[in-house]
Amino acid sequence: MKFLRLFFIIFLIVSPNQIKADDENLKNKITKNLRCLICQGQSVYDSDSEFANSLKIVINKKLNEGLSEQDIYDYFEDKYGEWILYDPLFNKNTYFLWILPLFMFLIGGLIIFKKLIKKYK
Predict the structure, then answer these.
(1) Which class is domain 2-89?
(2) How many alpha carbons lie under 13 Å from residue 2 in its C-beta half-sphere?
């Protein structure tokens, strides 16, 4: 009986602090993945503009309402467009964005390969 009572006391002490830390980590993760529309080169996490501060408040509110990370991203994407996301989805509007680095890598590899073949012939 004493063991059970001790377990509940420890659970009540540790649990709220852990939940608060998890919420803070999730909030930081979300704000790092959203672009500040005012600063344009910074994430909401890094920015101290009024817009970024208002987004942080909205994120806190949405987390307290129980929305998931993806629900929050969807909310901001619907409201501000896909550009607000630092990690855009792979769709018909972003094919070029995702495929261009692969093409550059392949073309660079082909150029290096041709130069190596020419050098050792």
Answers:
(1) mainly alpha
(2) 0
